[in-house]
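Please review this pair:
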Amino acid sequence: MVTEIKIDKTSIIPVYYQLQEALVDLIESGKFQPDELLPSENELSQELGISRNTIQRAFKYLVDRGLAYRVQGKGTFAANKRITSSMVAALSFSAEMLGMNKIVHTKMLQKEEVLAPDAIAKRLNVASGEKIYRIQRLRYVDDLPMSLQTSYLSPRLVPDLIHKNFEEKSLFAIIKELYNLEVCDAFETLQAVKATKYEAKFLEINEGDAVFLLERVSKIKTGETLEFVKTILRGDKSKFYVELTNKPSE
């Protein structure tokens, strides 16, 4: 299983962040079953050539997010998946903020073509290892860093997207304009977690502060998945509104 973890020490993404994301993918994709022992710190250190402190930080992240648990003297194990509540979001982040008379600003952190990890491939309904786009942006509201957003999309639906200029525009608006694609369904899960050092740096909060992890799958009219996005939202500045109704669907 360790052979499936790829670490790029030349990347601007910290090694511990790469490791924790790789472990999350292995757990969420089912490569590690619930209550299965994860590789030891020594094994990971020897195979990947990284320090035990880096590995301990990644394991702490897994435990803090409920993806793993520790047993004294035995090691770290994959946890059972959490039960999550879902809510449907009809508007994009930009549209929601503009509706509240907020000024939205976006800073592009990264946009690249990568090979789809198992868990991401499953969410996008593409083959594992298929080329996909990974776009990471920092979203500001009234000059306050509010969310760190990582989007995954298939080039098959939006070819050459990462070469388009959408830093100051809604991603969905650009996709509708250039590709004539529009989201008709969205499915979200929301979870309270602790900010990692990487996330805290961009959101200007402290490592370990409470944040929201929001994951959304957006689909177009054909039923194809347009985007899977993971958003880290500041817990001290976020509030969610959910409306429940028993009105029949149109």
Observations:
- Confidence is low (pLDDT under 50) at residues 83-91.
- The domain at 2-78 is CATH 1.10.10.10 (Arc Repressor Mutant, subunit A).
